[in-house]
Amino acid sequence: MKEIKITDIENIYIGQAEDAEKATGCTVLICPDGMAAGLDVRGGGPASRESELLKPMANAEYIHAVVFGGGSAFGLDAAGGVMEYMRSKDMGYDVGFTKVPLVCQSDIFDLGVGDVNAYPDHNMGLEAAKAALEGGNYKDGNYGAGCGATVGKWNGAATCMKTGIGSYAVQIGELKVGALVAVNALGDIFDHNTGAKVAGLLSPDKKGFVSTEEEMYKKTEAVDNKFTGNTTIGIIVTNGAFQKSKLCKIAGMAHNGYARSIRPVHTTADGDSIYAVSVGKVNADMDVVGTLAARVMSEAILRAVYSADSAYGIVSAKDL
Question: Tens of pLDDT along 199-247?
Fold first, then answer.
């Protein structure tokens, strides 16, 4: 097994656009000829578009793009810009008299970080799609959907930490499996290799950590409105040949990577979602790829933490 870049996986193009001043952005992954895709949602409050396409009983056997954005539900318009740019390049599902790009999207909540009125829109989605198809500009850190990402928010924004978007990929023989993730969790982030906490809820003086789990246990009464202001959204990309139903299972196995690295995870105040897409024809075992998916997802989460810069008055792991 050797490490590769997420951009070393063929037939997938990644572009990003962001408004760094206002703390929001979007990341788009495009497969011009279409890719089989699955989705597993385990958080209680996802902001998503066209997710029904990825259910095994839905008719669509492939899609053309996946978009990650900020702005919660407001940011879902970015997919329209991606569709417009792809159609201008004659990409999409041929319906006889035009082509319709099938684009799915999931968003994080970053409205409280920068400008509450700023979120990815049609033009930003178009800009990200153009970047993807004109050479790609993907980078880990405070870019794209990771621009306004934060973690450790149980006690509010004053003691949270800055994170971003991260990626990690490996190759075994011909098989390639990679993960890309925007880390915006309610909970704390841990190094799955050592168990050490690397980001999350800070102490009041912001010089050390406080356990989110221990803080939660201090009050066990039900909270009527916990507010879903968190979501970790990720994607597994492989050149292994899989159809939608098996990709849904691979996405589900990749959630083990979330569970190893984020505590608590999959709460009603998170919208945790993982896509899985097949962009190649390599003969591969689903359980092997699913196991690798969990591993690369955990590593991608660490990259999202360690590549992030402090911003908007929020400290990152680099500067803690």
Answer: 999 999 988 999 999 998 988 887 766 555 788 999 999 999 999 999 9
The reported pLDDT for the residue numbered 228 is: 52
Residues 6+ positions from 97 with CB-CB distance below 8 Å: none
**Is residue 273 within a helix (H) or strand (E), and if so which, with residue range?**
strand 273-282
Distance, in Å, from the CA atom of 227 to the CA atom of 137, rounded to the nearest integer, reads 33
Distances (CA, A) of 52 to 49, 105, 171, 229: 8, 11, 31, 23
Predicted confidence (pLDDT) at residue 185 exceeds the cutoff of 90 = yes
What residue type is assigned to position 67 of the chain?
V
β-strands 103-107, 63-69: how paired?
parallel
φ/ψ (deg, to 5) at 212: -60, -40
What's CA 249's distance to the chain center, in Å? 17
**Beta-sheet strands, E only, within 138-232:** 150-151, 161-162, 165-172, 175-182, 188-190, 197-199
In terms of C-beta density within 10 A (0-12 exposed, 13-18 middle, 19 or more buried), how is residue 257 classed? buried
